[in-house]
């Protein structure tokens, strides 16, 4: 490390640390068994009768019926459906008639509010449940629903009693809920069949099936009779009902042709063809032949006569796409180019590399965009972006129409949201920094929220799989919003069913750590979750501000000393501007009762792209994270989340080639601030952080050991290899590691090239081939059912052992991306304690002064 770099890191360190006076004597510290007893609260829905609010209650972790959900169980499973009577003082109760041994999730309500849609997972089997709120009876259709974290398989009500959804082929289960259990059982069945000798156990995957539909079907369920009717062959995505209820638009998923050149931003090998279903006759049209339509882009006009979409010719990259509008009456498509504009990518907010969805008004199409780099050239652009990319021009909503100049509809507004709250024939409603605005096609802006409203938070719709910000609310409905007026936080509804939207049912007096869950249908009660370091309360609030605690969870956390988070800011060289520096901030959790005279050992957690937030916060634990920094703090370790912005670690040499210098700068700043013992620093990385930690261990000095969990080590074999053993059951997963590297933007490991084009670059950036440079003890932790295959760490162990380096390797059977089984979580922490206890030096004798500069 150069003397200039060392000086920048050491002497220009700017830490926003309160003076480290002697700490108070610590209280009880967090124990692993405290995490095992954690309960939680999930999503909530109001019962249309106004009497009940339904909510997901998450069981204590050590009482789950199983730990096989998806890739990991914590945070994602353990759910039960409970209800709270808002008109009485009765305690919450389980919704009667449901399977007590299943993980059950709220999905939504029928239009008339009578039927509650649930997703039920038990022993790896996922089912749809239709629950009649009036009678308490439930029905489970035999067709298994397709599910997606990206929201592309959400079921759609086409009437009060008819539900349309994408169903998987017979015997299949959704990977997002069942991948571990389904894979394990399939493997066992095939093994036993082979050992019996009476059944062929061959599996085959081919890439010459272009034009075939992905297996599945579109079905129509009548909840009155329980009849399930076949609508269409093949798996379909992005179901979208026209406002008049006459047509259902859907995207048929079709296998792509073989081609060496492909869109490097794509995650799969399918394209999507538009289907238009007449719900009266159930006739199906294909009105956009030859076009590949982006899922999530379908948008109906208010009069149901037009449908907007974003598409490219089959085989073309999304970057060459254009918005199109289908006129149903004329049965023709018309392109809507956006000359001089660059469409905003969803990837900027951590979703997919595709444009934000447009809105179809009578006067044209409203798109979220920014001026192109060369707007005078008059070209339409869609540029692939990184997550939270810096130095971009501000985005705005523009009105575009063929042959007309575009118009900036949100000019002058700050921090415009990419997700609209509402739209109609002649308006759209968006959130900005100082309020919510209704905007007409001329650009006239009318603020709907009162003066003085700030820090507005909209409660975007969500479902069992799709997080807020993915789905769009049905226009013309209501949205729950939070806002601050002075020192008061308020919650209420903003309704769009009338010509003039209005705020109603406003509640005030919310605590700092309170989160609104649901407003009763009658508007007379607001259900809140109040989190604190002493537990979680479910609180019901009246319009007058009277709060009643109706359920208390995790009270065993009361009295814990969690330690203290602090921020540490320091300067690092800016690779884009030679000779210039940038200030970055890492977050440090100091252990309870830490005395400044005796710097503690420290875990330095590494993850590419990390920009940790360091605001002082009270721990709000709602699920048992087996990687919790508070467990390290309870064991006397400081814990650092190291800043690693993408633009500072990505260099010409590789996507994380600048990471060792970033970690080295953080180390120097930590030691200069006296926050850790220089001889007892441990590198740690999980997932993408694991390969990063191994890379840093090979390229830096000054660390006592490195722990790498559930990651990979060789970029080339990872590029070509399977995403775990699940490809045996889901062969379409083969090759899905490739976009991580082929992407030019939007991935932390973007190479922009394949190994066929730049094999040496893959080799040069692989920790596997740096094994001889790692000279500190290594602990490798992996699992046999992770999407990052265990074989990666098999190789890393062999490489380190071959080089004579001290290495330990432990793996867990049946686990996915992280450890879920309580027995395995306990075992892991025993091994972590043993490894650090045997490899990290003991503290220096009392009275000795450690080298705060960390050596020469």
Structure commentary:
The protein has 856 residues and is an alpha+beta fold. Helices cover 14% and strands 31% of the residues. The chain is built from twelve helices and 47 strands. Strands 40-41-43-42-44-45-46-47 form an eight-stranded mixed sheet, with helices on both faces. Strands 22, 23, 24, 25, 26 and 27 form a six-stranded mixed sheet that branches. Helix 4 (629-634) links the parallel strand 42 (602-605) and strand 43. Helix 1 (3-11) packs across helix 6 (659-672). The longest helix is centred in the first third of the chain and has 22 residues, at 175-196. It is globular and about 80 Å long. Residues 1-25 and 848-856 have low confidence and may be disordered.
Topology diagram in text:
Layout: H1 3-11, H2 32-36, E1 40-46, E2 52-58, E3 79-85, E4 93-94, E5 103-109, E6 115-122, E7 125-132, E8 138-139, E9 156-157, E10 162-167, H3 175-196, E11 217-222, E12 228-233, E13 236-241, E14 247-255, E15 270-278, E16 284-285, E17 291-293, E18 299-300, E19 306-313, E20 322-327, E21 332-336, E22 341-343, E23 359-361, E24 364-371, E25 381-382, E26 396-401, E27 404-408, E28 422-424, E29 427-432, E30 435-439, E31 445-447, E32 453-458, E33 478-485, E34 488-495, E35 502-507, E36 514-519, E37 526-532, E38 535-541, E39 547-553, E40 564-573, E41 581-590, E42 602-605, H4 629-634, E43 638-641, H5 646-649, H6 659-672, E44 681-686, H7 688-699, E45 705-709, H8 715-720, H9 738-742, H10 755-764, E46 778-783, H11 791-802, E47 807-812, H12 822-839
Parallel strand pairs: 22-25, 42-43, 42-44, 44-45, 45-46, 46-47
Antiparallel strand pairs: 1-2, 2-3, 3-4, 5-6, 6-7, 7-8, 9-10, 10-11, 11-12, 13-14, 14-15, 15-16, 17-19, 18-19, 19-20, 20-21, 22-24, 23-24, 24-26, 26-27, 28-29, 29-30, 30-31, 32-33, 33-34, 34-35, 36-37, 37-38, 38-39, 40-41, 41-43
